[in-house]
């Protein structure tokens, strides 16, 4: 029976519903299952199942305080015709000297992989509130590097009993991402640009969570805070499902035999997506290597090489903005598991990170990281990868996926490892239309929106519905605020 405990060792373990409502533990740790459950049958036996069926199996294993009906209703509500593809997550195979299988996680409403978890989180949360007889309204605080914000807004818009508040870095998101957020409709939606980068936004949100007086005052008004970031276990678990599904699908179409190992390559920012792959392996999916791809903000590449996590470095704004992150929150969960669930040890690392801007992991954890391999691609490598794959195979990928492909290609050249590899394809190329157009050598255009038109004409790839006519939508959230004002704005929008 999975119960959820804080990575920093504080408090009593909670059931899933309570952990989802809280979002983050009182000691600022993240909730993790005391034990990662095993799949009831091997992943290859799930060959032929629909995505919804696989997701149901995975969610049931983690959230065993939910009834079958509850899980069923959540899955059915989330993974429906909101997704542009009936199969929810198609896999595109690109052959050539370095074959790759792109797991297209971006066919949801907001055209990025965040939809995979944020289409279901509102259902999981409202179900949890009902189960726990929660009387307060839940105010979801979200820091975003661009994609989480829109996906959370879309998921929670007009969901009864909730308010959704999003902070994004004013200069740190693409034109399309920004436009998607500031035009969001829904009476319970609140969006603020902040003067700072993603880490500032994330730290600001974590500080608000840590302020007990603020929480007490909000409760007087009838609100509790929760999180839609991948620090919420209700966001992480639905992401495990697509790795299980991908394995089953590879067996189904004959790309691998049951039991064959696969590798995964994941373009990484906050470490949620790749951690979900690690959970899938613990559940029983035969994943050999986790290739963790970063852009110029390569804290993780250095970490896997040296065992030292050092955030004290220049922050780069890149053409893969959703990965412009120096503090990868979910790494804390992996450290917890690999330390043998030593909350005190993890608390020490996080304290060092706070006070000394770095920490060095134990030999034991280093040993546990041997299946992980870090690598990074700079902006030029990324554009090159996008251009090469488009020229040779006619396959169009976004910049984040371009980072992943570039790192993967280098990995294969360096190691000769020919294990079939799933590449997490995390966004529609149209979300980053300017950089992608640059990558495939299109002419300059005056705005992202004109790039969308040009890219459509060149590639023939359909523009996701949510990105059509975006420039014509009315701006409903024009505020730009300072980081020190975040708590005030939260207070004021919860009336
Ligand atoms: C969020 C995001 C990432 C990074 O995922 P993490 O789970 O934060 O590591 C990569 N690519 C895109 C397009 C994203 O939106």
In short:
This protein has 495 residues and is α/β, with parallel strands linked by helices. It has 20 helices and 15 strands. 43% of the residues lie in helices and 15% in strands.
By CATH, the topology of the domain at 91-111 and 238-460 is Rossmann fold
Per CATH, the class of the domain at 91-111 and 238-460 reads Alpha Beta
- Number of DSSP helices? 20
Low-confidence stretches: none
Query: What is the second-level CATH architecture of the domain at 91-111 and 238-460?
Result: 3-Layer(aba) Sandwich
Q: How helical, in percent, are the residues?
A: 40-55%
* Strand order, sheet with most strands: 3-4-14-9-10-13
* Largest sheet descriptor: 6 strands, mixed
Description of the structure:
This protein is an alpha/beta fold and 495 residues long. The protein has a domain at 91-111 and 238-460: 3-Layer(aba) Sandwich (Rossmann fold). It is 43% helix and 15% strand. The protein has 20 helices and 15 strands. The protein has helices at 16-22, 51-62, 68-78, 114-118, 121-131, 147-156, 175-182, 198-210, 212-220, 233-252, 272-283, 299-306, 331-338, 343-356, 363-368, 379-393, 399-415, 433-439, 448-459, 486-493; strands spanning 4-6, 31-33, 91-94, 100-104, 137-143, 162-169, 189-195, 223-227, 262-267, 287-294, 308-310, 358-360, 372-376, 421-425, 480-482. It has a six-stranded mixed beta sheet, with helices on both faces. Strands 8-5-6-7-15 form a five-stranded parallel beta sheet, sandwiched between helices. It has a two-stranded antiparallel sheet with strand order 1-2. Strand 6, helix 7 (175-182) and strand 7 form a beta-alpha-beta unit. The longest helix has 20 residues, at 233-252. The two termini are 39 Å apart. The model has no long low-confidence stretch (mean pLDDT 96).
